[in-house]
Each structure stands twice: as structure tokens, then as C-alpha cells.
Specification:
It contains eleven helices and ten strands. It has about 325 residues and is α/β, with parallel strands linked by helices. Strands 1, 2, 3, 4, 5, 6, 7, 8, 9 and 10 form a ten-stranded mixed beta sheet that branches.
Amino acid sequence: MITVRHGLAAIVLLGSFGISAQTASAQAYPAKPVRFVVPFVPGGPTDIQGRMLGEKLAQRIGQQVLVDNRGGAGGNIGMELTVKAPPDGYTIVIATVGTWAVNPHLYKLSFDVLKDFTPIIQVSTSPGVLVVHPSVPVKSVKELVALAKARPGELNYGSSGVGGFGHISGELFTLMTNTKMIHVPYKSSAPSLTDVVAGQIQVLFNNAISTVPFVQAGRVRALATTGAKRLAVLSELPTIAEAGITGYENSSWSAVAGPAGLPAAIQGRLHKEFTGILNDPDIQKRHADVGAQIIGGSPEQFHAYLKAEVEKFGKLVRSAGIKAASGG
């Protein structure tokens, strides 16, 4: 006969066994290669960053870290692949603000970015630069706003495409300044930069990595940076917020996560390793050299930030009437 006392003891014993099994599994992790999903094609900034971090992670955990490029649909294909993977720590993903916070408002997704991922760490933020062709008669953000108000719909600004960093930056700018500029989407940021240098478009919100050399060569005139803090490589430039558009901030940040249900011990192990990687002087220098700023922080901090970003971009997408692109 099993008494109530014996039954309770059995439950406690089974519970302890379950906890011990989880602990043993976490201690054995990782026992095989880890797949690091990059939801973009090879050669782009996220791929470069993913490979950089993956190399360091492999050194720290003593297992191969295999970068798996799954480009398409603005990063959604790679995200869905991660969501469907077993929550065992052997599939993780690195994605950017557009995929994390903008796409939920542009596409009908099969997953929820807030519920279907286990946050691990926010990696970095890469502010952009607001530049104009030298023929545009403005030398400050206030002068650009005044010109845009005096000539509504006459100034064109380029971007890498609908929903991309440059597009969102421009829409946020026009929304907060009550101005109207015409968006000209390109298939990538490179041709948009070429056209602002050539004077085919007047204004561009673009990543610092590729834009800074043109600023330094005098091919374009920089007015401000888009982030919360000034860029070290362009320290004389104010942020757009400092230049008078209070509250303006837009940066192309990245973060790492796993599928929902990742055991806390494995989540903690991955967070510990990535924190160590981000504190590595080599990684910090390589980010600083291209104008990126390391973020780090706890999984909870990343999740709270993501929630705020999803809400922010939802309001922006609705206010600006942004729709998903129908083609390449």
C-alpha cells in the first residue's frame, strides 16, 4: 500500500531526478557542433559579425560552430528555421533590428518574436549617418528640416529597400519633423550611396561602415548620426537628437537567441560565453573600427529592449503606411 507520505516522497524523488537530469544535460553541453543561423546571404554585415562571433564561440566551448546562411524574406526564413529547431542549444540565430522588430509589422509571420525565442544577448548597435549631396544648400539638421518644409516632396532620400535601415530612419525623421521627402528604394545600400554621391538623390540615411570614407573624402556632407551616442569615428558630428529632433534614435542593432523553451542552464551557459566574447579586446576593437558599439547585457534586458523596439516600429510602420516590398 502506498500512503500519502510515500506518494509525496515519490513525487519529490522524481522531481529531484528531473532536476538532476537537466543539470547533467547542461553540464554535458555542448557535446556536438552548434549551428549558428545567419538569416542573410554570405558577405553582408550580419554574416561577417556572425562568423567573427562563431569563431570565438568555438574556441570557448571546444566544439565546432557552423554558420548556416539562410537568406530570404528579410531574414524570416532563418528565423523560422530556428523556431522549429529543438530547444537544446544546438541551434541559435543572430539577427538584426529589421528582422526582430520591423518584420512583424510587414509580414504575416508563422512565429512571434517575443514568445517563440529564448533571448541570449544583444550584441551591438551600429548607428548610421545622415548625409546630403554637397550641392544641397544645408549644413545642419535644422537647415535640412527648414528646406524640406519649404520644398515639400521635392527632396529624395534613398535606402536599401522598403523596411530597411535607411527607409525606417527616413520615415522616422519625416514623421518627427512633420516634413515630406520622397523615398527612393534600392536593392541594397551600395547603389543608393553611389547615387547620393552622384547627385541623383539629395539625402541618405546610411550605415556608417560604408559611408564614412565618402564623408572623409568630401564626396558627401554629413549632418548628423542616427544613434543615441556620437560615433567615435565622426566625433564632431552631433546625433540627430542633439541637433534638435529630441527623442530621435535609430540604429541597426543585432542580437542572439535560441528557440523557445531553451533550458535555463544552457541559456545561461551561452550568455556567459557570449559575454566573454564581447569583452574580448579583439572583438571590441574590430567593432569599434567600423563604428559599431558593443551592447551586451542580460537576456532579460534584451527581451525588454526588443519589446520596446517592436512597439516603436509598429507605431512607425502604421503611421507612415509602410508596406512589405513585393519583389527583390
